[in-house]
Amino acid sequence: MSVTELFRIGMGYLKGGLIIGTLFVLLCFLGYGVVYRKLCKGRKKLPFPRLLWWGILIAYFGVVVGVTLLLRGSYYGYANDVIHPLFYSYREAWIHWSAAAWRNIIFNFCMFVPLGIWLPVGFKAFRKFWRTYLAGFMVTLLIETVQLVTHRGIFEWDDVLGNTVGTMIGYGMFAAGYLLWYAASRRKRGRGFSVANVLATQIPLVLTILGFAVIWGIYERQELGNNPNGYVEALDKSFIAMTGRDNFSNAEMQLPVYRVQTLTVQEAREKGEEILANLNAEVDEGRTIVYDNTLVLYSQSSRYTLWLTYQGGEYDLTDFDVTFPEEGERGSTVAGAEEETIREALRDIGMYVPEDAKFTEYHPGGYRFDADMLAYQGIKLNGALTCEYYGEAGIAHVKNSIISCMPYKEFLAISEQEAYEKIENGEFSYPQGTEAAIEVQSCGIKYSIDSKGFYQPDYCFDCMINGKAGEIRIPALKGNSK
User: Fold this and answer.
1) Which of 146, 173, 204, 374 is 20 to 30 A removed from 117 (C-alpha atoms)?
2) Does 81 score more than 80 pLDDT?
3) What would the mean pLDDT of 252-273 be, rounded to a whole number?
4) How many CB atoms lie within 10 A of CB 439?
5) What is the DSSP string of 381-445?
6) What distance in Å separates the CA atoms of residue 278 and residue 132, rounded to the nearest whole number?
7) pTM for the whole thing?
8) Cα 76 from Cα 192, distance rounded (Å)
9) Reduced to 3 DSSP states, what percent helix, strand and coil does the chain have, rounded to the nearest 5?
10) Which pLDDT tens digit goes with each residue over 188-220?
11) Is the CB of residue 159 less than 8 Å from the CB of residue 167?
12) Which residues contact 154 (CB under 8 A, 6 or more apart)?
């Protein structure tokens, strides 16, 4: 989810929270004027500042509840009943080095900063730091428990940690502001708000900044990026039943690593414009969507949509005029076409396939070209291009995942047997709490794009998993197999 989307969603819930808070204030005024003053003949004044404080707190909680509960749906499947251990989300964000994942982690800190500020503003009791800290912990623990019980989200101790530290940071901001206000007004400082105490309340903020700086520094010093096939948390071995082949080579070897093309947003836009220009179409700039990893383009006629991935330059093109030649009527794919027919249809839309790529019809009307590290002008071509053929109407959908790989250097890899033992130990990516009956059939080398745009080798084990064909990938490079 992009920053813009988060802001839009947050503003939507803020409006709802403000409406609820305003209604609360109005009802209090109504109750005070009609019930208390007229009916009960009360004479005490309405404490408007306190009422305003409650109204703002209610609006704030409206946003928090909306983002943490109402925004979520009961679509997490097995994960609904899984309680992720501490630092799970950090390990996941590290493996994929995902801007969205790190943004969500930081958002958890920021979301509870207002609570740490607002509680001591409204109640003197919360000016004791431990009470505010405890309140932040209890609120976030309640939210996570509700998510677990209602299946509207996942219970994560990382959320509890982030929200609680966010409350601590907010309290530190309040303490600093409180001290400055008393200094400016030349009043005697409140008890417990000496300069030393206020500096101590800044420790959570300082440690948080240092923690993220250390993570970023370690990542920047790495030569290669993080392999996306690493595991976040080892599976319970009691859930794994291994059969089939279990004798693999113990020999360590040197395996090559490649660089792949990494596009900037502007370069991806130019590539997309070129692809659409080959189709005599122009980009509708007003509908362009920029994601962290992907650019989405639409043609002005809405005939074409094009998704481009920055790393590797992969793209996915759909022609809706071919898919739906008439309104409400879907076209039909043509099965049994010859390889040259498909190549010619692709050339008609400006797309060329390596001559030595392996051709298959992987489902009726769906065709595939596989390039397995094909040598081409000093580089390697690897990956697959798939398309759907609609006869004379042409190609309706193309997904081009053939990547250009430029040699970088070789690295020492673990052995096949070591990789196999990682599967035995549950050190691979698989849903927690799910049983896995794994029949291992063979092992080969495949490649994955890491977080810095390098093409890293994986041991790819072809398996039957719970009776279905699948594969398990283990990062092959030494020191990068998590």
Assistant:
1) 146
2) no
3) 94
4) 16
5) EEEEEEEEE-GGG-EEEEEE--EEEEEEEEEEE--HHHHHHHHHTT-S---TT--EEEEEEEEEE
6) 62
7) 0.83
8) 45
9) 45, 25, 30
10) 555 567 889 999 999 999 999 999 999 999 999
11) no
12) 76, 79, 80, 82, 84, 147, 148
